[in-house]
Amino acid sequence: MRTEDAMTAEVVELLRTLIRNACVNDGTDASGHEIRSADTLEAYLSGVGLAMERYTAGPGRVNLVTRIDGRDRRAPTLLLLGHTDVVPADGRGWRHDPFAADVDDGVVWGRGAIDMLNLTATMAVACRRLAADGFRPAGTLIVAAVADEEASGAHGVAHLLDHHADAIRADYVITEAGGVPVPSREGPRLPVAVGGRGLAAPGRAGHRRSRRAAVRRGQCAGDGGRRRAAPRRLPVAGAHSRRVAAHRRSARSRPGDHRRPHRS
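^ that's the sequence the OP posted. Answer follows.
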């Protein structure tokens, strides 16, 4: 088996186990039970010389951190940040049991398969393979599997930052999402999210704990042109736009600053 195929198989099996652990976070302190996946990952990462640290924020709310120390203390540190909790799932609306981790036509089905147990598993497999091969990066590589991302983060990243910041201190972070550059006439821009889910409609939500769907599928698609969800500008978005505009006016009025947008 090719190295890539072997690693893919490891990711798939680890992913399926993490899904079956059903670390469901409904926003309450007693939910999550991320200890199950912390145990899974610790067992998987053992045997290759990796030292692992467990940080418990509450009963069952466990964060796991491991690292490969770098050769050069001056080199930047990279953190691979994954989470182990998932949002609730009502299996009645699923083709497959959301916590069975079935493989159907080459696809793994389950709650968290995309958000983000696939990446958490991939990070763990990559880290184990690097450690097993004796890889020593210039800068330290940290891999963290945290609890409570789907709710407040109080038992996960926030707990680590408040009580164990050195465990995850890094110059760069790779996680499930981040700034996506948007080209503009003035150069690349990074969008800032100031609000979300601005439309509400009755229905079953596909994410989080809400019982209201953000937009019905028919409305989102325009319902064949018969109905369209009316857009609504959130007040926070308007306030953000006004602040950005004021900042740009102020920047342009500074002495010696005569830059103008390039117009093609």
